[in-house]
From TrEMBL, chain A:
Naturally occurring in which organism (per UniProt): Secundilactobacillus folii
Principal place of residence: membrane
Pfam family, one: BPD_transp_1
Protein name, as recorded: ABC transporter permease subunit
GO terms under biological process: transmembrane transport
Similarity comment: Belongs to the binding-protein-dependent transport system permease family.
PROSITE patterns: ABC_TM1
UniProtKB/TrEMBL annotation, chain B:
Record has NAD as a keyword: no
PANTHER family: AMINO ACID IMPORT ATP-BINDING PROTEIN, PHOSPHONATES IMPORT ATP-BINDING PROTEIN PHNC
Top-level division of the source organism's lineage: Bacteria
Keywords from the UniProt entry: ATP-binding, Cell membrane, Membrane, Nucleotide-binding, Phosphonate transport, Translocase, Transport
Name listed for the protein in its UniProt record: Phosphonate ABC transporter ATP-binding protein
Domain ABC transporter: 2-246
Signal peptide stretch: none
NCBIfam families: ABC_phnC (TIGR02315)
GO cellular component, one term: membrane
PROSITE patterns, per the entry: ABC_TRANSPORTER_2
Amino acid sequence: MNSDIQQVTTFFNKKRFRLTVLILILGMAYVGASFGLGFQTQSLLGVQDGMIWLLKNFVPNATSNGYWSEILQQLYRTFLVAVTSTTCAAVVSLFLAILGAKTLTVSKALSWLIRGFSSLMRNIPIVAWAMILLFSFKQNDLTGFLALFFMTLGFLTRAFMETIEDFGTEKIQALQATGATYLQVIFQGLLPEVAVALLTWVLYMIENNVRDATLVGLLTGTGIGFIFNLYFKSLRYGAAGLVVLSVIILVVTVELISNLVGRLLA
Amino acid sequence: MLTVKHLAKSYDGEKKSLTDVSFSVRPGEVTVIIGPSGAGKTTILRSINQLIRDDDGEILFDSTDMRQLNRSQLRRARTRIGMIFQNYNLIEPLTAIENVLHGCLGTKSNLAGMFSIYSADEKQEALKLLEKVGLRDFAYQQCRNLSGGQEQRVGIARALMQHPKIILCDEPIASLDPKSTITVMDILRNLATAEGISVLINLHQVDIARHYADHVIGINNGQVVFDDATSALTDVAVTNIYRKDANQEGSLMYEL
Ligand SMILES: Nc1ncnc2c1ncn2[C@@H]1O[C@H](COP(=O)(O)OP(=O)(O)O)[C@@H](O)[C@H]1O
Ligand SMILES: [Mg+2]
């Protein structure tokens, strides 16, 4: 009895020790990184002044209200780019994910190829995608579309693949046992089971891409990102603040709609 | 009708899950396979319709060897072998009738099956089968809203939609309450008696086996240790089927 208690105590002590070591390592990593970057922790104290400056200058005023129509127009374009790139990527991803999922793949080599491809697509930062594509496609909406498309393709392929693998082999086999073909199993079994989960991922990605589209636009000189840059560089801070506000409103709206749709589906 | 000869299977190439299993199943009979957990019951059942590729032996279903068939031949052979599972394996978001109609996918063209294009006769039959298992009123309910016993009955209707000569049942009542157990077992028993369908059931409840089976096969450690009429299943025989061999792993679980 006593030795049991001893054992539990040792267990918790060990666990606590490991946590302490982890925190120490993280602390050391921070110190090391700040040193390497020449980053001064005191300068964080200046953040407050910066914030006050931001608030004074970026709060939209009466004159900036004149920019609403231009902003809304660009916002709409950015939104469209985000939605179309996500939905296009989703269609291709579904196809890749089915062929890549271990439970449904037609060959192991193909599965690994798709895994590698999706990992590559997803791990190139969106900014890098935009810069690379700028060379070939110049400054237009297509560049932004493609940058978002490739990144989303990588992400959704992976997410879809995991969802599909969760579907499990037993139900696949139950349909195969009736004599159903590969495509019949996918259409009659897999898709009905995973549709809601996949749609949730797509909605999440639309939200995410509305945000990213702003950033991409800044680089590719299109959409809402472009006019933010324009107003900012021409010192029209109020208007730039309005752009930020409009993006926040859009993102929150998309999030609310996606939550609502998610709840209706469940 | 179904004859299994010298069936062998190893999953990892080392440990043998089945060694030289032979038995046969007669039409219109309920044959029950009993044995401890890990004995190889599931492996036998899944080898019959080749969901598992076994290593050696013969599986004669209507005198063709299931093991020698190519893809499309296997698909055709599978259409006459129904299967039900412990976890039902229905497509949960679909309705009962849609799941029952899955039973005829094997006889349809690829496209018709993919897009649920069923004939009036097929729909009629699906409804009739739901009626038969007592679920006519639940035809348009999503299966995720059904109880375990109801789901298993949908599973049976799906198997019947195949016009099967034999139905394979892998622990069909292991997740069910006593009342649903009786309902499901009565349905299976009746399929054999009244329609001449062979029913092959993996079970671990000996009392149920005694009550419903015509014939019992005892499996222990991948081998057939009992193969006789139910009346011959004495307590001594049961003890022998569930015995723990010296060369078996100590972790073997008893499910008696
Ligand atoms: N997919 C698998 N991979 C590896 N070993 C397996 C697999 N399925 C079953 N086995 C092994 O084969 C043996 C027989 O299993 P199984 O046929 O499931 O027994 P039962 O259905 O009688 O409980 C067990 O020892 C089990 O560990
Ligand atoms: Mg089993």
